[in-house]
Design goal:
- The protein has 534 residues and is an all-beta fold.
- The protein is 1% helix and 46% strand.
- It is built from one helix and 40 strands.
- A hairpin with a 6-residue loop joins strand 6 and strand 7.
- The N terminus is likely disordered.
Length: 534
């Protein structure tokens, strides 16, 4: 089956995913006619992007919740650790985000941050040391009380991966948990793992607990329970799971759907954002877990997801909104690095002070050839953006004169420390240069191709068509018909079913001296990301 591409709506139809590329664990809230959405970022920084929409379909980045290294220490987290699922809520003029930092040697656990403007600045974290587990969420009741839920491993559990969903009252003035703990749920199905990502809602006087279940891979699902009181007891829907694709097989275009959050529009419609993955070229979802949108209808006192359709593929008409929508915002193709700040689409790996410069050579991004490599659990000189399309051409004009064979600068496609692809200019050991391709898979690196390269700026292109990542190069100023393809790499190893973890791939400029001190710098004059026409 073909994989649907794109984002937004066409001919009055929602085109999923609405946030393509690695945007997992979506959470959404509404303030008047405005919607705000956040997603997980794990080891990447800035962390927790914030998006704005007027129609739930077209989303515009407005900032990040975690944009200062002083807020959190991600410096020693492993790949797919760091910032797990977060929840965004709004109450009485204040935005709240609650999340968990997992792993690393720094301060970890659950914390809450606040802001009056979702674009920031967000506060420093207030740590909830008595909030166990992961996936916290906040619920503001109509009686003025607030509550925090989360997931932890059951002790003792009846099976591996058995979890508890707990509840405690939340003091909005002190930003602390208070009062006794209440055990709300242990999942809908006996033997199902990881009842997680819990969210509470109040609808027509009843309390509803929404949770993911089955693990975040192929068996992912959405389940729901309800109660007459916020503290329970909760009774599961006899139809659980109420939404899943696991029964459709691994060759279905979208797999692993789950981790939903509900929102009611100002016009009274209900919708859900949730994650899913789109494998291609085999069971290889290189783009990671993406954000999807489906309508919800209430029937017999329960939420019905994607009524009449039952999958994320739709078709769905867009939400009815009275306020003017942002409309489709064309993604900029080229970044010329002319502004004073990096575009919010760029991320680095882990927290550290900026290693790049936009002023050392105005109009270019300057990267030092630092000692850390992509294979290490540190902060390499790598700036990446999410791969959001299965077919895409990524190019950069790189100006670098490496002095040794271990000085590399160019482009990289990163899945993790153990699995990534590097396409770079390097020294040849004889005073000249070479262009090379290196693949690291399963923690072992191998050089797959190299060729002599004359001096001068060079355009490096990663031309991805499905799982074929073609690596091409040409002198600056030459036309595309002069490009030489150094090699092509099968990118299936970059997908999480092969590599492990929870992430899709990031790609962008990268420079390293492989542990040695170096005064060499690389200037990236421009970078463009151009989806290929279907």
């Amino acid at each position: 089956m073909s994989v649907p591409e794109g984002t937004g709506s066409a001919a009055g139809t929602v085109v999923n995913p609405v946030l393509p590329g690695c945007h997992p664990d979506p959470s959404v809230c509404r303030v008047g006619a405005d919607y705000y959405l956040i997603t997980s970022t794990f080891e990447y920084f800035p962390g927790i992007p914030v998006f704005h929409s007027r129609d739930l379909v077209h989303w515009r980045p407005v900032g990040h919740v975690l944009d200062r290294p002083s807020q959190v220490d991600l410096g020693t987290v492993a790949s797919s650790e760091g910032i797990f699922a977060a929840t965004i809520r709004h109450h009485q003029g204040r935005f709240y985000v609650v999340t968990t930092l997992v792993g690393g040697s720094g301060r970890g656990g659950t914390f809450v941050v606040t802001a009056t403007d979702p674009a920031g600045p967000w506060s420093d974290p207030v740590w909830l040391d008595d909030a166990p587990g992961v996936d916290p969420s906040l619920f503001f009741d109509d009686d003025g009380r607030a509550w925090c839920t989360g997931t932890r491993l059951a002790e003792p559990g009846e099976w591996e991966g058995h979890t508890d969903v707990w509840l405690r009252e939340f003091d909005t003035a002190e930003l602390t948990l208070t009062g006794p703990e209440h055990l709300l749920w242990r999942g809908a199905l006996h033997g199902a793992v990881w009842a997680e990502g819990p969210h509470l809602y109040k609808v027509d006087g009843r309390y509803y607990l929404l949770a993911a279940e089955g693990g975040t891979e192929h068996r992912h699902a959405v389940s729901v329970a309800r109660a007459d009181h916020v503290t329970g007891p909760y009774t599961g829907n006899p139809a659980n799971p109420v939404f899943t694709h696991r029964h459709l097989g691994r060759d279905f275009p979208v797999v692993g759907v789950g981790h939903a959050d509900l929102v009611r529009t100002a016009e009274g419609e209900w919708w859900a954002v949730l994650l899913g993955s789109r494998p291609y070229g085999g069971y290889h979802p290189n783009l990671g877990r993406e954000t999807f949108l489906v309508p919800v209808r209430w029937e017999d006192g329960w939420p019905l997801f994607a009524p009449g359709v039952g999958t994320t593929l739709g078709p769905f008409r867009p939400p009815a909104v009275a306020a003017p929508a942002d409309g489709p915002q064309p993604e900029p193709v080229r970044d010329d690095f002319d502004g004073p700040l990096l575009d919010p689409r760029w991320n680095q790996v882990r927290t550290a002070e900026p290693f790049w410069s936009l002023t050392a050579r105005p109009g270019a991004l300057r990267l030092p050839l630092g000692p850390v490599t992509l294979a290490e659990a540190g902060t390499p000189c790598f700036l990446g953006r999410r791969q959001q399309h299965q077919d895409v051409s990524v190019r950069a004009l790189v100006d670098v004169e490496p002095r040794t064979p271990r000085e590399w600068a160019g482009l990289a496609v990163r899945q993790s420390e153990a699995d990534h692809l590097v396409f770079a200019v390097a020294g040849d050991g004889r005073g000249g240069r070479r262009v090379l391709a290196a693949v690291r898979t399963g923690g072992e690196e191998r050089l797959v191709a190299e060729a002599p390269l004359p001096s001068g700026p060079v355009v490096l292109r990663i031309h991805a068509e499905g799982q074929r990542y073609g690596l091409r190069y040409a002198p600056a100023g030459a036309g595309p018909d002069t490009e030489t393809e150094l090699t092509a790499v099968d990118g299936g190893f970059l997908s999480s079913p092969r590599a492990g973890g929870f992430l899709g791939v990031w790609l962008g400029p990268y420079a390293t001296a492989h542990g040695a001190p170096s005064a060499t710098v690389a200037d990236v004059d421009w970078f463009d990301y151009r989806p290929l026409a279907p």
